[in-house]
């Protein structure tokens, strides 16, 4: 039976076996930026569970790019070695794996969530955070504005991390450019008050993200997909907030610079109206971006059932369905969804005895 959710998708040289994606989710279990047994089981179990693509949690390109001291990293060779067995295990299950590269910018230097997630000053093991402008993004401290030299260094950090991603064996790279982190701090005028080449006009505010995309495309294979996660809207009524039309305009530029997939999330500097936070509430962002640009899009936001996920693909609203909390609740969502939708479940050989063959006809 032809089930859209379980149809393959080709992105450059990467062939995904289905349209289900594990969304990045921070684990806060990586001192020194090193992944370990938890990540092997956490990411590996979702690959065993049948998703087509696993995207790692946000992985910092430098020590100062982290949100906490326990975020994963890809700024040194020890981290490459730690990631490699995780990558290889995921791939051995027939899934693909992408690393999400990020820099928290002015939202960095926090204590572990279990310790209150408060700002961690340098005297307590934190660091001086840098952003587009000197603003208090977490309401606890004010970041310093990045200099032009520091901006150039940041772009180089992303390129070096991308090289390490290739060295590690990742199948694709995603840039986290949403949720109020560094790239979002530049393209949204709510956080960017600069008056130089990186502030003011739309073209200036997107410049850092475009430069990072160019730097990464220059050092990774042409066949390797490059993804970007955006905050499609700012969830703010302020005059200079970022809107969906801005995201469409940005994505059109990113396409020209070699971006293949955009996941349309939202928020980072504001909160949505809680009455509007309902199943599929963010899907229209992906739908609009896809319709206006033709780029592959990923949909997120309270997608919890196989019927919802399949309908998104069948209707053409998005090309990929990203699941977060639902995959925490059920690592084997893909196997369950295939059974519920009468598709052939992507069952690992050791588990076949629990999944009788479909009745044909």
UniProtKB/TrEMBL annotation:
Statement: the UniProt record of this protein carries the keyword NADP: yes
Keyword Oxidoreductase attributed: yes
Listed cofactors: FMN
Keywords, in A-Z order: Flavoprotein, FMN, NADP, Oxidoreductase
GO MF term set: FMN binding; NADP binding; NADPH dehydrogenase activity
Protein name: NADH:flavin oxidoreductase/NADH oxidase
Xref: InterPro entries: Aldolase_TIM (IPR013785), OxRdtase_FMN_N (IPR001155), YqjM-like (IPR044152)
């Amino acid at each position: 039976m032809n089930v859209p959710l379980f149809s393959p998708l080709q992105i450059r040289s990467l062939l995904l076996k289905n349209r289900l994606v594990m969304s990045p989710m921070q684990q806060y279990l990586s001192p020194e930026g090193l992944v370990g047994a938890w990540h092997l089981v956490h990411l590996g179990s979702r690959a065993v569970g049948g998703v087509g693509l696993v995207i790692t949690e946000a992985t910092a390109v430098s020590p100062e790019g982290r949100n906490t001291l326990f975020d994963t990293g890809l700024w040194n060779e020890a981290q490459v070695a730690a990631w490699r067995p995780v990558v290889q295990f995921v791939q051995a299950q027939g899934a693909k794996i992408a690393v999400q590269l990020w820099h928290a910018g002015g939202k960095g230097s926090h204590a572990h969530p279990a310790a209150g997630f408060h700002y961690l000053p340098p005297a307590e093991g934190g660091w001086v955070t840098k952003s587009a402008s000197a603003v208090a993004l977490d309401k606890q401290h004010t970041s310093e504005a990045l200099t032009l030299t520091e901006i150039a260094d940041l772009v180089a950090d992303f390129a070096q991390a991308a090289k390490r991603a290739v060295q590690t064996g990742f199948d694709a790279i995603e840039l986290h450019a949403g949720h109020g982190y560094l790239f979002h701090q530049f393209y949204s005028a709510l956080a960017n008050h600069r008056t130089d080449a990186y502030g003011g006009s739309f073209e200036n505010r997107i410049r850092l993200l475009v430069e990072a995309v160019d730097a990464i495309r220059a050092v990774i294979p042409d066949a390797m997909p490059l993804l970007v996660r955006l905050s499609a809207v700012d969830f703010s009524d302020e005059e200079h907030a970022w809107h969906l039309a801005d995201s469409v305009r940005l994505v059109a530029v990113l396409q020209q610079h070699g971006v293949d997939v955009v996941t349309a999330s939202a928020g980072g500097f504001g909160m949505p109206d809680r009455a509007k936070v309902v199943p599929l509430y963010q899907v229209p962002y992906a739908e609009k971006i896809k319709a206006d640009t033709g780029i592959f899009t990923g949909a997120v936001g309270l997608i919890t059932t196989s019927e919802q996920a399949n309908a998104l693909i069948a209707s053409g609203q998005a090309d990929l369905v990203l699941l977060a909390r639902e995959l925490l609740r059920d690592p084997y969502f893909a196997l369950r969804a295939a059974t519920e939708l009468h598709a052939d479940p992507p069952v690992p050989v050791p588990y076949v005895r629990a999944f009788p063959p479909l009745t044909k006809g």
